[in-house]
Amino acid sequence: MPRPSQRDRILDAYTELVVTSGPETVTLEAVATAAGVSKGGLLYHFGSREALLEGLLERARGLNDDDLAAARAAPEGVAAYYLRTSVDEPVAGSPVYRATVALIKLATTEPRAAEATRRCLAGWRAALTEELGDPLSADLVAAVGDGIYLRAIVGDSSEGLGAAIDEVIRRTSPR
Amino acid sequence: MPRPSQRDRILDAYTELVVTSGPETVTLEAVATAAGVSKGGLLYHFGSREALLEGLLERARGLNDDDLAAARAAPEGVAAYYLRTSVDEPVAGSPVYRATVALIKLATTEPRAAEATRRCLAGWRAALTEELGDPLSADLVAAVGDGIYLRAIVGDSSEGLGAAIDEVIRRTSPR
DNA sequence: GTCTATACGCGGATAGAC
DNA sequence: GTCTATCCGCGTATAGAC
Asked: Which of A98, A28, A21 is nearest to A67 (CA)?
């Protein structure tokens, strides 16, 4: 896999369309146009719709792993990192975030996307447990973050929680 | 609207298929067969795919309103009710729960379903705020419940939280 | 009311030119 | 590598019989 810049542009377009319009409504034609190529051009890089999906899954997994590593190295800690980015990214829209939202939307239809999503969520839960010690605290923080994702997907924001991340972490810990 | 039993059977089938296979992959043919009628028969009751969706949305809204009323009247309280049912229903599978999951899955593609979902979530948040007083506590419990829904949708369970609902409520409250 | 038959359009995929 | 042209199958919706 050399450096197929065109492949990435196509995946970018696909991701973007899934995020905005939802899966299944996205046609190869639409992805190709958005990426600046023709349907035939797209199908040269990805032999089928299935292959295109697989490409997105692979990239989403990679981006998530990197993000998880960044969280582990973050001074604020994994918990604050996870909650903060969950709340902020809907606006900022980093590549990881977009890929993750696309993943979840695809998960409503594609079993492979659902599996990839579970893998991501499990990774965060593991890192949180590692950091917080108490499993319930970890599961709570994780669930709050997951809830924020669900809201983002249906078009709801979570500023209330975003403004009180430290307090949220304090409350979720054992008393 | 008299008592169109056939309409309901069709909506049941549609809901079930959306929950299991995801939206958009569900064809009118499949819904008709699952409901025990032909495509033509289905289209007599619902003039178009759009009308079928609208039917599901309407029913989901109604079921959710009823559930919200039940929660408000429940001795355990709204918070415990919301968390408990979120965790348990994936197994039990009540009509409200199925309708809600279908709603969320549809929300990834259909703006109207997204709006209906936001309306439902807002209703729970309002009831929780009313009961708990503190807005942050309410938002926290709501977010945890929402997170549990997200997990259910991607095929993850949340037994850990389900086994500690009282503790969850205790921790989310102000200290 | 419910069915069958059919028209119609669209999306995925292939073939082959450039 | 990328495009155009084309084929094929499927899903929605309509028409009309029963």
From this structure: A98
Question: What are the structural domain ranges in chain A?
Answer: 5-172
In the complex, which nucleotide's C1' lies nearest to the CA atom of residue A36? D2
With 0-12 / 13-18 / 19 or more C-beta atoms within 10 angstroms meaning exposed / middle / buried, residue B175 is: exposed
Query: B156 and chain A: CB distance < 8 Å anywhere?
Result: yes
User: Is nucleic acid strand C under 7 Å from A34's C-beta?
Assistant: no
0.90 exceeded by the pTM?
yes
pLDDT in tens, A51-102: 999 999 999 999 999 999 999 999 999 999 999 999 999 998 999 999 999 9
- Counted across chains A and B, CB pairs separated by less than 8 A come out at 138
d(CA A92, CA A138): 25
Q: Which of the listed CATH numbers 2.60.40.1920, 1.10.357.10, 1.20.1250.20, 2.60.120.1140 matches domain B5-172?
A: 1.10.357.10
Residues of A in contact with B15 (CB under 8 A): none
The token duo for B107 is: 């929300």
Closest nucleotide to A30, Cα to C1': C11
What is the DSSP code (8-state) at residue B22? Answer: -
**Residue recorded with tokens 């109604």:** B62
Q: Show the CA angle centred on residue B110, arms to residues B104 and B112, nearest 5°.
A: 85
Tens digit of each residue's pLDDT (9 = 90 or more) over B130-171: 999 999 999 999 999 999 999 999 999 999 999 999 999 999
Identify the residue whose Cα has the smallest distance to the C1' of D10. B27
